[in-house]
Amino acid sequence: xxxxxxxxxxxxxxxxxxxxxxxxxxxxxxxxxxxxxxxxxxxxxxxxxxxxxxxxxxxxxxxxxxxxxxxxxxxxxxxxxxxxxxxxxxxxxxxxxxxxxxxxxxxxxxxxxxxxxxxxxxxxxxxxxxxxxxxxxxxxxxxxxxxxxxxxxxxxxxxxxxxxxxxxxxxxxxxxxxxxxxxxxxxxxxxxxxxxxxxxxxxxxxxxxxxxxxxxxxxxxxxxxxxxxxxxxxxxxxxxxxxxxxxxxxxxxxx
Length: 255
Prior knowledge:
The chain has 255 residues and is α/β, with parallel strands linked by helices. Helices cover 40% and strands 14% of the residues. The chain is built from nine helices and six strands. Strands 1, 2, 3, 4, 5 and 6 form a six-stranded mixed β-sheet that branches. Helix 2 (8-17) crosses helix 5 (78-92). The radius of gyration is 19 Å and the shape is globular. Residues 7-83 form the Insertion element IS402-like domain.
């Protein structure tokens, strides 16, 4: 199970971004569980959706121990860094297609009501559906308000040849992004837009290129911890979202 959840190549990539363990100046204390053991436990919680206290003892660290390390690494932005490292590996191997990207969002229900219940995950994927930019917001945020921040949030990713890249040639979006100021903003950044227009029906071309991001949204469901928002802190919910995107990209890298 350990090899299935955290293969050797994924562990090597994780070691690039994990911060060193803190040292107690006074010495002593209990033995700190190894990072690999805790990483396996965190991935298990993310993919199965179990609570921290339901974590099987076979992994070694207890649920509270794994949760403390998860909090520590989330504060250090380890999961976002790991996602970017894997994107760099994919880019250097020519595994990313920047010719056509897509943006969309999906609502995730919350365990308890907070205004409009749940959170929204905003995602930009490259042509084949690999997530390259991700963020979360309240469920009441309109999709159009997230486009600029998500495009700016695309990190500079390595290419097989030439400089790093962070702008797609073309961006596809549904009618929730149908605003002229967004089209002008994309053109000013040298990005062609393919945004569906409200009131215009096209049964022959609807979803012709945006289906890949819909498939990616279903891939996020493989991280069962995202089926419903249990985390009170947005930082933790974003961390699980980044873990899901990391696993999606790693599967492509391993293939």
